[in-house]
Design a protein that fits this description.
- Helices cover 33% and strands 26% of the residues.
- Helix 1 packs parallel to helix 7 and helix 2 (48-56) runs parallel beside helix 7 (294-313).
- Strands 1, 2, 7, 8, 9, 10, 16 and 17 form an eight-stranded mixed sheet that branches. The chain has an eight-stranded mixed sheet with strand order 5-4-12-13-14-11-15-18.
- With 485 residues, the chain is an alpha+beta fold.
- The relative contact order is 0.13.
């Protein structure tokens, strides 16, 4: 066996999965068909849940300091503000508030962390064939090399080669015509403390401040309906429509670092697993970019899969545990797809009924403070719970499957610490020494013993910060016997 897990795709999801598996002591190889790391921004928003995952990977680093805190979205009709939504920290003890930062910077930090753990991506190494049997997968790379791995995980995006080779369907629908996407410097006095968007008869346009002096420009535009323009054409089209649709006096697009064109699709893989082949991130689900849920959901996929795959690889659990990955994560993807599709249709509404709903009903409603707090909480994904999944449960809160906040704790020697900082590749027992010994007998050395600074029930916390179970040694034993069988 060349490696225990072969990961195809060196984007944020593949890199996060590789880091998490290495934290758990699992050997990995990461291959990608690209010539090297991407330099364009692509996704540019990391919500609080994404910050937590990066923190538990010890990969958050200085990203919060590099990011822009553009925590408002103001929508205009001409020069008239129609709606302002304020985002912020929902106060749930998380690693960082929402961050506006390019995907390229997130990937760079993950590559640094991967190197610290002894790994590195292999570039110019696309997957061309994969055959699995009862003990592993034989993968053939584009340069002719063959890699034998115990498991293969596709993190290779919407056109996933892994998904196609596994014969997994990817049904869905087209939600909208094309959007223009440009990163550029602007000549403008527009406030950089938030995102601004304009409703226009020819299509919406949005401007989001990026780190440095860059802006992200997004516009719904059907000009290139029947052709595939080059980057220069995309930038020139954006340069023309920018002053027309915003109505801002003197605004100019100075120079662009990236231009792209995309259509919004909604797709969801039929299954996340076929034998020893699994999918994560955009390989498994794709949706509209509104709300910044894509990279966020993919990072959650990676963390959820990592601890389960590590237990199976190490012989600590049966393969049935891997079925809980899809059972926990696919319902969330379904919910995200529905929400992002609804937002897309609202943003591009062209019919009188659609415009009335958006401009006369949604605009005043979104001015309510409680609804703005709800929007922050919803997009953060801090609400995600697996209590209804096969590893969840009932009872008083927190319930098995719920997220446990980053509570203050002490190690047995009295050293202060945080729960999430101790989870990095580990389970955590919050309770007495007998609970700790019970968990360690089944889970080995990857269990930490902590005392919460404030009173909490005795509990076993999963490596992804979700509650496994509450109670004494008998309850922990019962849960472990059932979950890891």
């Amino acid at each position: 066996m060349d490696t225990e897990v072969l990961i195809v795709g060196a984007g944020p999801v593949g890199l996060a999965l590789a880091c998490a598996l290495l934290q758990h002591g699992v050997s990995v190889r990461v291959v990608d068909q690209a010539q090297g790391p991407a330099t364009t921004s692509r996704a540019n928003f990391v919500h609080a849940r994404g910050s937590e995952v990066l923190d538990r990977l010890d990969a958050l680093g200085g990203l919060p300091e590099e990011s822009v805190r553009a925590m408002t979205i103001t929508t205009y009709a001409g020069d008239r503000p129609m709606m302002r939504v304020r985002f912020g920290d929902p106060g749930l003890r998380t690693a960082a508030p929402p961050m506006v930062i390019s995907q390229a910077r997130v990937e760079a930090r993950l590559r640094d962390r991967l190197a610290e753990l002894g790994g590195r991506p292999e570039w110019n190494a696309g997957l061309v064939a994969a055959d699995q049997d009862g003990s592993g997968v034989t993968a053939v790379l584009g340069d002719g090399r063959t890699v034998r791995a115990g498991w293969l995980v596709g993190c290779d995006g919407t056109g996933s080669t892994v998904r196609k080779l596994a014969g997994i369907g990817f049904p869905g629908v087209k939600v909208s015509e094309r959007f223009l996407l440009v990163d550029a410097r602007l000549d403008t006095t527009l406030d950089r403390s938030g995102t601004s968007g304009w409703v226009h008869p020819d299509g919406m346009i949005g401007l989001m401040p990026m780190p440095g002096d860059q802006w992200r420009l997004l516009a719904y535009d059907a000009t290139f309906r029947d052709e595939k323009p080059g980057e220069e054409q995309i930038v020139e089209r954006m340069r023309r429509i920018l002053p027309e649709r915003t109505g801002l006096p003197g605004i100019r697009l100075l120079d662009a670092t990236w231009g792209s064109l995309f259509s919004v699709h909604r797709r969801l893989a039929d299954t996340y697993r076929r034998g020893r082949i699994l999918l994560a991130g955009d390989s498994a689900h794709v949706h509209a970019p509104f709300g910044g849920q894509g990279m966020l959901t993919g990072l959650g996929d990676a963390e959820n899969l990592a601890w389960k795959l590590a237990l199976v690889v190490g012989g600590g659990a049966g393969e049935r545990l891997l079925d809980t990955y899809e059972a926990e994560r696919r319902p969330l993807a379904t919910q995200v797809l529905r929400g992002s599709t609804a937002v897309t249709k609202l943003n591009i509404a062209a019919s009188p009924a659609g415009r009335f709903l958006r401009d006369r009903i949604m605009v005043p409603v979104f001015g309510l403070s409680w609804l703005q707090r709800w929007a922050t909480y919803t997009t953060s994904q801090l609400w995600v719970s697996y209590r209804r999944g096969p590893l969840g449960g009932r009872g008083g809160r927190p319930r098995p499957g719920d997220r446990i906040p980053d509570v203050a704790c002490e190690r047995p020697d009295g050293t202060p610490t945080r729960l999430h900082a101790e989870l990095r590749g580990h389970w955590a027992v919050l309770g007495g020494h007998d609970l700790f010994e019970t968990a360690r007998r089944r889970l080995g050395e990857r269990v930490v013993h902590l005392r919460p600074a404030s009173p909490l029930p005795d509990m076993l916390v999963r490596p992804d910060a979700h509650l496994a179970c509450k109670g004494g040694p008998a309850e922990i034993t019962r849960w472990l016997d059932g979950a890891l069988a």
